[in-house]
# Entry
Amino acid sequence: MTQISYLLFQTVLAATFLSCAAYIVFFISRKKEVRTLARWILTLSGILQTCYILSRYWMTGYAPVTSQHETITFFAWASTWAYLSFRWRYTVKNFGTFVSLLIFILLVIAASVSRGTAPLAPALQSPWLPIHAGVSLVAYGFLALAFCGGLMYLLQEKELKTKRFGYFFSRLPSLEALDQLNSHCLTAGFLFLTLGIVTGTLWAHQAWGTYWQWDPKETWSLITWFIYLIQVHQRLTVGWRGKRAAVMAILGFCAVLFTLWGVTFLLGGAHSYAR
Amino acid sequence: MPAERILLAGVNHKSTPLQIRELLALTDGYEEALKRLAGIPGCRECYLLSTCNRVEILLIVEPGVRLEDELVRFLFAGRVSAGKFNEYMYLYYDEEAVNHLFMVAASLDSMIIGEAQILGQLKEAYRYASRLHCTGPLLNRLLHKSFSVAKRVRSETGIGSSAVSISYAAVQLAKKIFGSLQDKKVLLVGAGEMAELAAEHLLGQGVDEVVVANRTLSRAVDLAERFNGKAVSLAELVLQLERVDIMISSTGASGIILKKEDVRPVMRLRRNKPLFLIDIAVPRDLDPELNDLENVFVYDIDDLTSVVELNKSEREKEAVKAARIVDEEVLKFQRWYKGMAVTPTIAALQKKAREICRFELDKTLPRLQGLSEKEQQSIEKMAGAIVSKMLYDPLLFLKKDSCKQDSNVKADMLRTIFGLGDDEQ
# Structure
């Protein structure tokens, strides 16, 4: 089983690499067949990722979202399926190139950390584990898409503002499409993030007897949540959009990454299980 | 003997930045400028073209006269600091001048190569010049020729087919900003061919509504009717900006009509929805600093070039073909121009007379039987005498040096009366 699981992950890595490469080829050559190919490979990679996560579950007997390797893999999985679900509803030109690159990077990081399995820490033995961790990571998946959209927005806006039309102008979608993408991903991501924090407090109450104890991870989650809250609030009330929204999406994602890694490695605290 | 020269002087979008062109553009119409130009001593014929991308002067200069300094004064006087002139202005003589004129007419020198508006502008400029009797036989001929060159280039090359014009570039940009234009509203401020074309083009892309603002409301109503939109007065401009997404400005105003401070509060009311401002007026209508505002995109006529550059390569191939046509036509014109001189006209006239004479004699003599050698010679002599006597006065008229000024007119007239073909016939 371990053997099969190991091979599965290698296949996932290879498939994602191929998909990412194909997307980049499409970005450069703009040949439609290449994009179709890239999409199919990415879908395949998404399915394989699901299989891999299931195989981990099979092996360990608990939701595979505890170790560093598992968390990042799940993060990549969430991004992949968030993208595919999104893609199913409407297309944003060349979005796949950026997203597949991000997914590939995540998987490479996942591959470079220890893939070993360990018995589940007693504190984590709870039905809340898959719910809390899963929901939070799905939120991260959507926020990762918003991050990619934000990067693309800034690139495109720069070309339009400076009126120097370079390599990206014709290859990137319209500002409106990117802003809409930002709005959608943000709404979904923020919703899941809120759910993640709420389930976290409920679990904390059950496990530690208190809803909130200002553990570094909790604090940073809250900071991240506030960054996104400001953004959602401003968008709804005064219509923050465009460049500002894109910058906020990038900032927010940096906070997400810090909450995910920075806190664990730099600050420690009660949440630092997944080393 | 030095001959008269064709002289073309001007500035265009390649040689001169917009800020300078703004200063040079004729805001008070052609008549005034043409009269001043015609009054320059040594200028035999003149013509003037002023569009938002170029100001060009075409002159026929008396032999031996140099008008370069006069022209510099005419173009730049008091508006641009001295010393910069040479950088901006180009001067072409004779064959090069003809070539340049043809290139301009054929829209090969345009900012947007292949756009059709320049020909209309050229014709309009010519109408003014000929109405004021500024043009003479040479320029009349030259300008008419340039129109036909433009037509030939258009029909024989694909240069116009990509229909790339300012309006096309504007639509392309609008799409990069808004994605779909389906529910967008356009505000057209001022009138003018290019602005109307852009509005039309946007309508063709499914724009929701066109609102027209104009200094004179009746003009606005007329235009609005054409676009099936509504008319507003110019005073409502800022108010309208709350609800439109694209504004095309092309008023004849001499200053800026929309400032950064006007638009900043509007953006808050618009909830930061993007605003695309297109300024095709020269001098500019919109404050370039507007571009610093978030979600506001300002493009003036020069900025639109860079968009156009993107779809260049395809047209460049056609441009090579078009340039070849222009070269050909320049050669033909040169041939005609040389023939314009008095001596070749005389020669041509005599040659034609001789030929007619010969032809008729060859037709008639064989039918007359029993004529002696001597009688035949007498008939031939008589025919020759009739012809030379007929030609005597016209040739005298042509050769008479009394009013040298008109030798071209005379040659042209004679060539027309006697059907002395040029290249075309």
